[in-house]
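FORM 7B: Structural annotation worksheet

SECTION A. Query
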Amino acid sequence: MSINGATLQADNKTPVLIQAEKLFYSQDGIRFEFEGASGGYPGNLASYSSKTGSLYLTNLRMIYVPTPLLETLKTFNVPLENVRDGKFVQPWFDANRYEGMLCDLLFGSLISSSAVIPVPHGGLKERGTMKLTFREGGGFEFSSIFQQLRSRITGEPAQFENLPAYEEPLQGSSSSEPPPPLIDENTSSSPPPPAAAVVSPVVAEAVSPASAMRPPIQPHGIAEGEAPPSYDALSR
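SECTION B. Predicted structure
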């Protein structure tokens, strides 16, 4: 870990990557705090803080750049293997956080705190605690990528949160859904008989037996059983 050890590009924001280094994550709007293990005071070289800045995560290190650059803190450079005792916590009714030695929640934002080990000749003489507050999101993504990248370097397995344990429902609690009906093994599985067809009253009247036995209507002027007159007889 080193103070002001990372080289920035012309924009004074983006770090210059070294050979074989690749950027995997970047996020703005992050508050940074570092406090030495002996409990440094404001103004002491063992304590640093920045209200907002950018965080960069590569396959080798984690770099924080405050916005704007501070007189005593321009970059904070941490090799991934030097960050220890950190874990990502997902409470049920609270904001997610990445915590280690310190655990605090500010403004409902995501907080990250973990033990940091100094690098020889890096500007810090003692180990301490680093706290990152993700005010604009991106904390879950940071935690996932950080665990995987650090696991590749150290060989340690990535630490992931276990699923919550199953809790049985309280006694006396009622369920909104009724239980499924019991199936009797002796009950026949054959389908029910088809329902009787419904006949419209108009159709029933048209095909009723009374209408079927009714004699046909005879033409006017022709007695029953008498043949109708021919065409020639009618034309006379």
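SECTION C. Observations
The chain is about 15% helix and 25% strand. Confidence is low (pLDDT under 50) at residues 100-112, 161-167.

SECTION D. Sign-off
Analyst initials: ____
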